[in-house]
Amino acid sequence: MTDSRDKIYATLQLDIAGFRFDQAVASVFPDMIKRSVPGYETIISMTGTLADRYVQANSRCYDLGCSLGASSIAMRHHIQQPGCEIISVDNSEDMLKQCRVILQQDQNNSEHSSVEPSPIKHTPVELVCGNIEDIPIVNASMVVLNFTLQFIPLEQRAKLLHKIADGLLPGGVLVLSEKVEFIDQQHHELMIDLHHNFKRANGYSDLEISQKRSSLEDVLIPETLEVHRQRLREAGFSSVDVWFQCFNFASLIALK
Ligand code: GEK
To answer: Which residues, in sequence order, are bridge partners of residue 254?
Structure first.
């Protein structure tokens, strides 16, 4: 079911509702995000590499806005330390329903596999249905915000990042991936154009691209990389910079 092709905006909709992470989106989400976000698969796979490097023994890892659990699974496959726990949070019950099934399949596969990349096979994953603004962050060595902060109201973002910085152990890492915008208008428009070319090359029609864009208006609010860097520093991170970027999609590493 989760291998289904995204056709949500393929037919003309006279009244385009604001984008919601409902059952229709959950059932096509892997296809939607792969065909819409340049570099998504690279970012997920590098999240595993970063878990390998930064996750500390007896600590927690958080996947905030986990959707179907791709980042949680990447961390689980690569954690090298004992006594860890992954807390995966999303406020869409439709997403979590499918996430639960996918995590169970992953657990079953790893129990029967002899080629697991990590010797720690059973880092438990706790799924939490809730608003990431209300979830306490405690004893964390890794926090992932993979394309989620962009959906949080602008005025709440600094508070959330402060909470994450406070909950991270010394040496802990935040991986923050976002759609971004640019101050230079010409560059901004070029990046949007190249992103739309990417979507067209992945089989989305102009109608799908434009209807999805309208539905995300006022729901997904991008900011510049300068704003992200500055706010992360103010939140208490000592080292902050971009490690991946393709067009208007970027991922930052922020170290406590
Ligand atoms: C991935 N990280 O595959 N509290 C909890 N969850 C939220 C909130 C909130 N306030 N706002 C949005 N979400 C994933 C992809 S998708 C990104 C993340 C995208 C959830 C929302 O329900 C959705 O599942 C996720 O954040 C954003 O690596 O679709 O562009």
So the answer is: 174, 240
Instruction: Name the domain count of the chain.
Output: 1
Grouping H, G, I as helix, E, B as strand and the rest as coil, residue 126 is strand
* CB of 30 sitting under 6 A from ligand 1: no
Range of the domain at 130: 23-202+224-255
For the CA of 131, the closest atom of ligand 1 is: 4
pTM here?
A: 0.95
Residue whose Cα lies nearest atom 13 of ligand 1: it is 65
Determine the distance separating the centroid of ligand 1 and the alpha carbon of 78, expressed in angstroms.
22
**Is residue 18 included in any domain, yes or no?**
no
Q: Is 123 in the pocket of ligand 1 (CB under 6 A)?
A: no
Are the beta carbons of 90 and 66 closer than 8 angstroms?
Answer: yes
Is residue 105, in this structure, part of any structural domain at all?
Answer: yes
Q: Residue 128 sits in a domain of what CATH number?
A: 3.40.50.150
Q: How far is the CA of 171 from the centre of ligand 1 (A)?
A: 26
Query: Which atom of ligand 1 is closest in space to residue 66's alpha carbon?
Result: 2
Give the CA distances from residue 63 to residues 117, 130, 135, 165, 185, in Å, rounded to whole numbers and listed in that order: 20, 12, 11, 14, 33
Alpha carbon nearest to ligand 1 atom 27, residue: 148
Q: pLDDT for 98-133, tens place per residue?
A: 999 999 999 888 777 766 555 666 899 999 999 999
Q: What is the pLDDT of residue 10?
A: 78
CA of 7 to the centre of ligand 1 (A): 20
pLDDT (tens digit per residue) in 151-191: 999 999 999 999 999 999 999 999 999 999 999 999 999 99
Amino acid at 74: A
